[in-house]
Structure formats: C-alpha cells, structure tokens
Amino acid sequence: MPYTLSEDGMQIKSTIGKTLLVVLFCLVSISVFAKDNTWEVLFDSGKQAYTDGRYSQAIERLSEAEKGARLSKADELKLAEICKYIGLSYACLHKFSDAEAPLKQTLAYVEKVKGAESEELIPCLVDLANLYFASSKPGQAEGFAKRALSIAEKVEGADSPKLIQYLDQMANASVAQGKLSEAESIRKRVVSICDRPSDPNNPMLAIALYDLGVIYMREHKSDEMQAAFTRALPICEKTEPLHAGVYLPVLNGLGGYYMDKGRLYEAEPYILKAVEVAQQSLGVDDPATGTTIRMQAALQMLQGNYSQAEVTIKKALAIHEKAGNKGLIIGDLSVYSQILRKLERSDEAAKIEARMSDLKAKK
Fold first, then answer.
1. Which of 66, 164, 214, 240 is least surrounded by Cβ atoms within 10 Å, i.e. has the fewest?
2. How far apart are CA 46 and CA 186, in angstroms?
3. What is the pTM of this model?
4. Which residues of the chain have a pLDDT value below 50?
5. CA neighbours within 13 Å on the CB side: how many for 349?
C-alpha cells in the first residue's frame, strides 16, 4: 500500500515548502545585491529622480537601494549618501517628520566614520537645521546651526565669509524665538565679516546691512535702521541683481522712516525711486509694486495732495485685487478711506470701511 500524507501532513509539507521558498528568495536577493550591485543602479536612478524633482519615485528607489546596500554591507559613507537623498526627497514633499530619521542617520554615519569635528559633518548639520526651520522648530534648528558654525570656524577661521551661511541660520533661529538682541549681535558680526576696505561695493555687505536694518526695525530702533539702510543704498544702486530683494525694501524703509518723522520732502525721492525700481524689476502688476504705490499714495495724502492720492491708491488697489490678496486689499482700503475723509466724502469712506469689515470677517 503506497504511503500517503494525512491532511495535517500535507499542510506541514506546504508550510515547509513556503518557508524554503522564502529562504531561497532571500538568498537569491542577497546574491543579486551583493554580486550584481543592483542597489547601486537603484541609487543612481533614485538620485536622478531626486534631481529631476520626481521625489516620490526617488524615495521608492532609494529605499530599495538602502536595503540592498545594507545587505551587501556597503561602505557607511555610501549609506549616508543614500539616506541623505531619501531625507531630502521627503523634505521636498513637505513630509518633514519622515525626513528627520534619514537625515539624522546620515549625520550618524558620517560622524562615525569621520569623527565628531570633521568638516564633512557640516552639510549634514545644515540639512538638519534647514529641516527644523521648515518644521517651525527654530530651537532645534539653532542647535545644528551652532554646531556647523563651530566646526567651520576651526576649519576656515573666525572671519571667513564662508561662515555667513551658518550665521544666517543662527540669526533666523534667534528671530523666530524672539531673541532679537542675539540676532542683532549675529548680524553685526556678518557685517564685520563683509566689510572689507579692499571691496567697499561688495554686494554681500549691502545684504548684511539690510539684514541688520531689519533687526533694528523689529527692535524699534529706527535711527539705527536708517543708518544701516543708508549705508547699503549706494551699493544697491550699483548692483542690479540686488534691486528686487534688497534695493527696493531699502528704499521703502528709508521712505517710511522719513514719513514717520514728518520729513516728507526727504521721503519723496526714496518713494518715487522705489516705485520705479519695483516696476522695472518686478513688473507693473506685481503685488510688491502695488504695496510701494500704496506708500506713494500715503505720502501724497500727508502732503495734502488728496486728489492725486486717490488716483494713486486706486492703482494699488487694482493691482492687489487682480492678485486676490485679501490682506493687501485691506491695507489699500484703509488708506483709501482716510483719503476720502480728507476729501470730505464721508459716505464713500463709510462704504470702503464696510467693505474692509466684510473682508476681515471672511476666513
């Protein structure tokens, strides 16, 4: 009589068979990754996907590459590179909590291989600082930025321009935490680094002075702000790439300073120049151009030129209505209602104010 398996025996045989298949599959996978270096192909493909902005695809391929690299016992610096791109891909998708672990793992790998004071840690620390800034965690960002600065100071020296990016991170972290006096000290150090007699028109000096002036503005130190902006102004005038990002806000800041002081004659050339720069560098329909035109309308109102101020504020309002920016529209309407009341057109002013209230009530 031939030997036959019971139902239980057949189930055991099936289970053993499945187990052997799983073990065999794992061995084949290890063999493929180890011998054919499939993980390297996946890494190159994932890195290219990251470069191309295909972040979800990058994460998928890089995660598989990481598994293969671990199985084949790849160099830890290569594992660090894989983890870096996984973390950066998550960050680009605004999945900051998912980005944290791979970026920290990157730091751990590099630190293990290169040591705690290696300059090769700096990019890892900067990536983590940027991640925590994006996650609205400035306190944690500050810690990584400080460590990056400490290593960079030892490598580059205390006055090297290469320190500026780390000092910028620390200043931003201080501002985000309300530590304005610390931010002021850091910004002053950046100005000192950029202030070279051999290069008085250094664009980096103009940027540093502008950043310092913004801190002074936050601290309500208007005279110090005016001094910083005035010093930055001639450098900005000579450097076209600074026009939109630095020159325009410097002009607006100086115009606003003199308006607040009641020195309208001194304010006017700054405001007129700001409108010109905004239109040329940003375009006539840019919301920032509209905000600058609003300042011009406010100046005209203070000068008593109410009819011209009304024409000007309508231009600003049209720009911001086209952009659909509720906050900027409310700002325009506020100035508009003041102008109308100066023109003794109270009924029209009341309608404008009612529109402001409706906009503020809308979420």
1. 240
2. 39
3. 0.81
4. 1-35
5. 14
